[in-house]
Amino acid sequence: MRRLIFATNNKHKVEEVRAALNGTVEIVTLAEAGLCGEIPETADTLQGNALQKAQWVWERTHCDCFADDTGLEVEALDGAPGVYSARYAGEHCSFDDNIDKLLGALEGENNRRADFRTVICLIEGGNTQYFEGRVDGQILTERHSNGEGFGYDPVFMPDRFAVSFAEMPLDVKNSISHRGLAVKQLAEYLSQTNGTQAASLQ
Ligand code: IMP
Predict the structure, then answer these.
(1) What is the CATH number of the domain that holds 174?
(2) Tens digit of pLDDT for each residue in 60-86?
(3) What is the dihedral of CA 178, 94, 12, 165, to 10 degrees?
(4) pTM reported for the whole predicted model
């Protein structure tokens, strides 16, 4: 079976990707591949970070692999926190710290438009391919949560819904989310190719 190393140890992401691929591709985590250490994420774009993470795996294994990177892009903040979403409130900050900083930055702001964007970089046979998913919505003025989700979910309400990501069942969120859409594209690509196509795409 075709095998890909996913440059993550995040269980939720791995479950989501495995579900989307429906057993057609074997997904191996960093730990399962015997890889440890901090992967650098020092690029200033989502695409750059996804590439950096996938290349880190490729250079060590020469196995087909992929990585993802996600950012929350807020219109009134000129696209911030964007590629810095994880550490918006500082290194080692919590999700709550990030949300507090975001709500503070948008205090009194009428334009609450924002999007989540995920870029996946796939390296097959040394060649790179990108897949992108995006969901538009708005930043709420306070947290709305049923305890679902993570990150900025309690303050992000996707368009056409009256609830935040943190109030939705995970399968509903995954069906419309940035990462869900990027993974769907990756899955479609993988289902249409047999693993040797990437070399001929270049
Ligand atoms: P990562 O690139 O997937 O690690 O995402 C970077 C940061 O974006 C995370 O630390 C979260 O703060 C935020 N983020 C990513 N995906 C989501 C999501 O689905 N909901 C809420 N926040 C997210």
Answers:
(1) 3.90.950.10
(2) 999 999 999 999 999 999 999 999 999
(3) -40
(4) 0.93
